């Protein structure tokens, strides 16, 4: 048991820390929220360092329910980094409206525990427990600003559709258990290696459908624009980054380790989902007037590109998918940090694309950073966002999926239109009322760091990022 506890040390640190911070929140009240937030960030840093060092080594724990390996370590580092950024930007946002609560960082930490379990799960039941722990915290976070009707609506929609997706996932798990006689990934894979029954096929379909909801892939994307628009902006930034990595990591591990022998069966589903997400994410974003809704469709679009790597079904494809998620969270967090700067003279947040008109003349540095994030999300070289797109297309081509790579490339051209529209609005339209000067050096510093990471200087990180991604992918095969 002690060996298993050492393997799960990152989750133990976050769980115990979250419980202690919950007690501190009960005694200290909302006045202690900033201190609790900083303590939560410190816990994430410690948990990330433990995941990187892996004092318990790598292996299976708790009777084959949990696995610590290079794949889970890499995913957890991305999850904890994105979660820490979402925590750091929250106090300045919520305190303007008197909505900052001491339980906010506690909910975020519990969500991070669930995400860690998701990427380390080696059993369908562990998968479900981790997924629900993450989701239950997320439902509350979506409606955290209780006086805002949009946030209440977002939380309700997320909860109802999330419950539906959980039911679909549970039904798929029950089918896999019924026709394989086990819930462990290894046992399911062994059953799929023999005589392949219709029941197992339906189980694959339902499990992939439930997981597609969590990564907001078509056709289970319908919650994304409304929740992204209605939730508080720091929460939206969190939803668009950390849970996305966790759900993608979970999907990759399930597809490779549990359903690997049935590659020909699930590949068709992944290809359809990837292409549908790319097309809908590109086309539906064109008519949007809200930045947050546009980034919601951008998220759907980018998930489609990441799935191309998984569809390849190779180590290189999985490595490309994880590299894509690493670069994606940097670009997305940077874009949401820029949205947090869109405040009028009275301090009210402006989220419309039209509010960016002429931004290059009133806030040239902010306009330059946002332009970089938009070009990088579009995959336009020489910005670093081009590199992960190239990797997933290359992996698909090497796996014999040349038509899929071509379709993805065409879809990226269509998607570039709405990113370029934002740049055109900032640089060529008549100026709208100027935004108030930034009051947060932290937000400005984070924008500078994320912009530097997705600039051409980001290519210097290719040897390190590529090596880590390949090691993570190799751990699954």
UniProtKB/TrEMBL annotation:
<comment type="function">
    <text>NDH-1 shuttles electrons from NADH, via FMN and iron-sulfur (Fe-S) centers, to quinones in the respiratory chain. The immediate electron acceptor for the enzyme in this species is believed to be ubiquinone. Couples the redox reaction to proton translocation (for every two electrons transferred, four hydrogen ions are translocated across the cytoplasmic membrane), and thus conserves the redox energy in a proton gradient.</text>
</comment>
<keyword id="KW-1003">Cell membrane</keyword>
<keyword id="KW-0560">Oxidoreductase</keyword>
<feature type="domain" description="NADH:quinone oxidoreductase/Mrp antiporter transmembrane">
    <location>
        <begin position="121"/>
        <end position="414"/>
    </location>
</feature>
<comment type="similarity">
    <text>Belongs to the complex I subunit 2 family.</text>
</comment>
<keyword id="KW-0812">Transmembrane</keyword>
<feature type="transmembrane region" description="Helical">
    <location>
        <begin position="318"/>
        <end position="340"/>
    </location>
</feature>
<protein>
    <recommendedName>
        <fullName>NADH-quinone oxidoreductase subunit N</fullName>
        <ecNumber>7.1.1.-</ecNumber>
    </recommendedName>
</protein>
<dbReference type="InterPro" id="IPR001750">
    <property type="entry name" value="ND/Mrp_TM"/>
</dbReference>
<feature type="transmembrane region" description="Helical">
    <location>
        <begin position="12"/>
        <end position="29"/>
    </location>
</feature>
<dbReference type="GO" id="GO:0016491">
    <property type="term" value="F:oxidoreductase activity"/>
</dbReference>
<feature type="transmembrane region" description="Helical">
    <location>
        <begin position="158"/>
        <end position="179"/>
    </location>
</feature>
<feature type="transmembrane region" description="Helical">
    <location>
        <begin position="268"/>
        <end position="287"/>
    </location>
</feature>
<keyword id="KW-0520">NAD</keyword>
<feature type="transmembrane region" description="Helical">
    <location>
        <begin position="399"/>
        <end position="420"/>
    </location>
</feature>
<feature type="transmembrane region" description="Helical">
    <location>
        <begin position="74"/>
        <end position="94"/>
    </location>
</feature>
<feature type="transmembrane region" description="Helical">
    <location>
        <begin position="366"/>
        <end position="387"/>
    </location>
</feature>
<keyword id="KW-0472">Membrane</keyword>
<keyword id="KW-0813">Transport</keyword>
<feature type="transmembrane region" description="Helical">
    <location>
        <begin position="36"/>
        <end position="54"/>
    </location>
</feature>
<keyword id="KW-0874">Quinone</keyword>
<keyword id="KW-0830">Ubiquinone</keyword>
<feature type="transmembrane region" description="Helical">
    <location>
        <begin position="294"/>
        <end position="312"/>
    </location>
</feature>
<feature type="transmembrane region" description="Helical">
    <location>
        <begin position="106"/>
        <end position="122"/>
    </location>
</feature>
<keyword id="KW-1133">Transmembrane helix</keyword>
<feature type="transmembrane region" description="Helical">
    <location>
        <begin position="199"/>
        <end position="223"/>
    </location>
</feature>
<dbReference type="Pfam" id="PF00361">
    <property type="entry name" value="Proton_antipo_M"/>
</dbReference>
<keyword id="KW-1278">Translocase</keyword>
<dbReference type="InterPro" id="IPR010096">
    <property type="entry name" value="NADH-Q_OxRdtase_suN/2"/>
</dbReference>
<comment type="subunit">
    <text>NDH-1 is composed of 14 different subunits. Subunits NuoA, H, J, K, L, M, N constitute the membrane sector of the complex.</text>
</comment>
